[in-house]
Design a protein that fits this description.
Two copies of one chain form a homodimer.
Chain A: H1 10-13, H2 19-26, E1 33-34, H3 47-65, H4 75-87, E2 97-100, H5 103-114, E3 120-125, H6 129-136, E4 141-148, E5 151-152, H7 154-166, E6 173-176, H8 190-202, E7 206-210, H9 226-229, E8 234-239, E9 251-254, H10 257-271, H11 276-287, H12 290-316, E10 324-325, E11 333-337, H13 344-353, E12 356-357, E13 359-360, E14 373-377, H14 383-398
Amino acid sequence: MINYEQFYSANAAGMKKSIIRELLKLTGKPGIISFAGGLPAPDMFPVQEITEIVSDLMAREGEKILQYGPTEGYTPLREELLQYMKRQGVELSIDQLVVITSSQQGLDLVGKIFVNRGDVIMMSKPTYVGAIQAFNSYSAHMCGIEIEDDGIDTGMLEREIKKFIAENRKPKFIYLVPDFQNPSGITVSLEKRKELIRIAEKYDLLIVEDSPYKQLRFEGEHEPSFISLNSERVVSLYTFSKILLPGFRLGWMVGPESLVQKAVIAKQAVDLCAPPFNQAVFAEFMKKGLLEKQVAKIITAYREKRDFMLAKLDRYMPDLEGLKWTRPQGGLFLWLTLPGHMDTTEMFTDALEKNVAYVIGSAFDPEGKERNTMRLNFSFASKEQIDQGIKRLAEVIKNR
Amino acid sequence: MINYEQFYSANAAGMKKSIIRELLKLTGKPGIISFAGGLPAPDMFPVQEITEIVSDLMAREGEKILQYGPTEGYTPLREELLQYMKRQGVELSIDQLVVITSSQQGLDLVGKIFVNRGDVIMMSKPTYVGAIQAFNSYSAHMCGIEIEDDGIDTGMLEREIKKFIAENRKPKFIYLVPDFQNPSGITVSLEKRKELIRIAEKYDLLIVEDSPYKQLRFEGEHEPSFISLNSERVVSLYTFSKILLPGFRLGWMVGPESLVQKAVIAKQAVDLCAPPFNQAVFAEFMKKGLLEKQVAKIITAYREKRDFMLAKLDRYMPDLEGLKWTRPQGGLFLWLTLPGHMDTTEMFTDALEKNVAYVIGSAFDPEGKERNTMRLNFSFASKEQIDQGIKRLAEVIKNR
């Protein structure tokens, strides 16, 4: 018998199977209604348009798009993305943008270029589980700060940052999902955005803005992105997964040129380049003006589903002290809080018995302590499923 | 002015722009004949077949293949790959195989799960530049051992391993590209393969077998892969880039289940999954029996180009003491050694002036010391270009 443990790096020794992933496996059983995944609605995917673009591109330049490409990304896609960012008020030079193989890769690159073992990262609590995994794989010390209705508690954040600095452990960056956060659905207010920029400047920190959902605003005004508020301290990650489709695994990273160029060097050792074929197809999709149309379609569909889920929650949920849920203005998720004595992990088995699934709140807590919360996804299930699923979930809660 | 340097991890601080990449930029100028890239011949890409498969698959299961997929890989592709490996004498269970987003990602994952700062890795000298970059990004201590006509000098390898063990720095693994090595074109003999396995067992080390070219054997018998000789200590990396096309960025990793499963956990934090769309297309390509046909086509074409380049080298190269080149039985590259006093980096400017390019040998040396060697790629250039390019290169050498 070989002792494989001896070969693992210290970082690898700390990597654990994701709880969320193990739970998701259980939710695959037939008949189950799952609000657990973070999947976009597949009936929204522009299958026909993509097929036509592939045929056309392959006939025109098949040999080119099936070859290796530059690490920075396929030039026509980078140019489309610069225009896209510009339409959102963010002016960038081409050297400030790199195409990444999913925004998850962006999180890995951020970990790789910034994080030494034990380095402090500030983040809200709860936060995106994939970020916890990525930063954990570099053995970061993640400090979670409570989230309020208008975003992370900036007062507590500043106090914690001061404490770390006093211990000579200045945090590297503040990690945020500012719009319709995964998992809470909460958006950071303009006032808090400005406050966060002030904190980053005062204490000389970076901000990592993870922005997969920003475009999916159902109502109200867009808040300015962090990168538009400060071009020197912010690295922003974007993905096509939620605004177009995830199966091509493409996103983009923007920020100060020297940081982005460091990420390019790191990326070259990671996978040489994102798939040129996939990049060429998305470039063409954007060039035809189809992305904005696609986003508009998704917004209409998801808004309807969110409204439907909120209506069903209002209708079915019992009247319990402390039971509440967020009402996100966009995105894919809402966040449900149960009375303090209840435990969504314990309740998970009951839910599975009733054929309904969610993600337990502790998955989104860097310290894994959350007990009485759950994430509900409203983008994937059909209306019929949402009606039945929320009804079942309400029964599970009543019976605890 | 912000001091960005303060934010970098220790590993990132050591990441440098790749020399090879900077040189490759220079080789893009019009009129230049480049033997520098490691590009497959684009006129071999099965553009028509891929286009048809895409149309067919999108009509049948577009919504499925544009969605997220499992981290381990798209099941039909994994099953095809298990069969493919079996036909090559390697029997594996499905949990011993993970689809990776390029074999470069495999090198990154190997670094991530095994390498702490300063950990020792044994490798041949010269070796694949992408491996140097990947392991350097984890601050590995890479120990390069001279390569002989039949592979790495196993005597010297064992002596160096013993020294490291005596210093209490047991190496983690031996990294090898055993077949038609990039850059040298050299293949490890059966005798040395057995000797390497013996060394790994005796000193309790792993072997990382990087195998992008193995299928591209133009003549002679296939040597057994390391994974077929020892299933407990070998992790093997494969890629579609050289046997099919690189633009989809897909490869696969196989090995002992516990190591592969550790890589799966690491991969989840890195990019969640390889592109399901691309995986589905390649699964279909394999299912139709097209991969073996494609490999046969490539072998015929590359054999002809290798023969052609060797004939031109014989014809044009001056009769200099110490000037020699390898005669690989497969792959994409050959390795040219100049007389000891000559320096291929200094000569590079002369070559560019004559509109011909190669990769300098030092790029493939973990210590960057190689001076009088160069890598020549014979897969990409046309015959006319090979004739002209080798003629020009011979003149450059004569004029030094």
